[in-house]
Amino acid sequence: MTAASTRRLPAITDDELRALPPLVEVDTVARALRCSTSTVYAMAREGTFPFEVLTFGKSRRWRRNDLLEYLGLDPIRTAA
Question: What is the mean pLDDT of residues 52-75?
């Protein structure tokens, strides 16, 4: 494991969260949850993550709206 994968990242603001794309990467999830990226990866690997983890090959992504709801923020609704 590299030092970069275990470091804590700066917190993210509510406005930054709402401006995120529909699918977000591990760095963003770690910032939002105020934990390390290695913790996020470990929870995903162990199946203990509090909301769905999307896997694309070796990549993992999380839905922005799931993250917002978990943090107690209103999800972003898009027009159908």
Answer: 93
Q: In sequence order, what are the residues at sequence separation of 6 or more whose Cβ sits closer than 8 angstroms to the Cβ of residue 37?
A: 4, 5, 6, 7, 9, 26, 27, 30
Q: Which residue has the tokens 């910032």?
A: 31
Where on the phi/psi map is residue 57: left (φ > 0), alpha (ψ -120 to 50), or beta? left
The dihedral region occupied by 72, where left means phi > 0, alpha psi between -120 and 50, and beta the remainder, is: left
Q: Give this prediction's pTM.
A: 0.80
Give pLDDT tens digits for 38-50.
Answer: 999 999 999 999 9
How far apart, in whole angstroms, are the C-alpha atoms of residue 65 and residue 24?
10
Helices (H), the chain: 3-6, 14-18, 26-33, 37-46, 64-70
Domain assignments of the chain as residue spans, ordered by start = 3-70
